[in-house]
Hints:
By secondary structure, the protein is an alpha+beta fold. It has helices spanning 7-13, 44-51, 112-122, 176-190, 204-212, and strands at residues 20-23, 26-29, 37-39, 59-64, 74-86, 104-106, 137-142, 145-156, 159-167, 194-200, 216-228. The protein folds into two domains: 7-82 and 224-228, 3-Layer(aba) Sandwich (Aminopeptidase); 84-219, 3-Layer(aba) Sandwich (Aminopeptidase).
Amino acid sequence: MHPLDNVIWQALTTRQANFAESYLDARRFSSHVTSLGAFSEPTDRGYESLAGLLRTGDTVALFLESPYQPRPGWKLIADTPLLQMVCENHSVPVLSQRASSSAIVELKPADSPEMVELATLTKPGPFGARTHELGTYVGIRLQGKLVAMSGERLKVPGYTEVSAVCTHPEHTGKGYAGMLMKEVMCQIRERGEVPFLHVRQDNLRAIELYKRLGITERKVFFLAVVKKE
């Protein structure tokens, strides 16, 4: 299996096992970190194992190989095709050096409330009070207010995910997302790892930005947010 296949499961059984809540064939991140979860196989046993990690009414976000199929005891809340993209080319010119802007700051645990507020407004994906613990996060502040950020989320052997790429609606079009992504990707590269990310397949604007940064399409997954009934 490629390290980026069943990537949530692989993260929770390797580099991020310390964040895992486990039951039989399922794993999930602590709910305060992120809503992502996974099982070794999308079988009846896999879903039964996952149910053992949740209370009635709890939700979990899954990355599936095929569109979600209805199952007893589960309600589908949201689903969408999810494009996985990877920056495999070590010679991509845009990653030859870090962004020069002094506006980039490393975000600290004390910044978590502002990070959650920005993510709630812009909806780049699941982001909780402890998501910042998954890796380095950087941002841009204007007049003391956090207006853009990006950071690291899933980590598997040899790969680290770029995530939470978002900009306040009042400050889009200024190149902040690309600047912050370049910084995060350079840090990942310096550790000898490969950057990757996930994006909604219909988010064409973001996909074009990522391609300009040398990130190429790898595979389509299917995001399914499901609630235990």
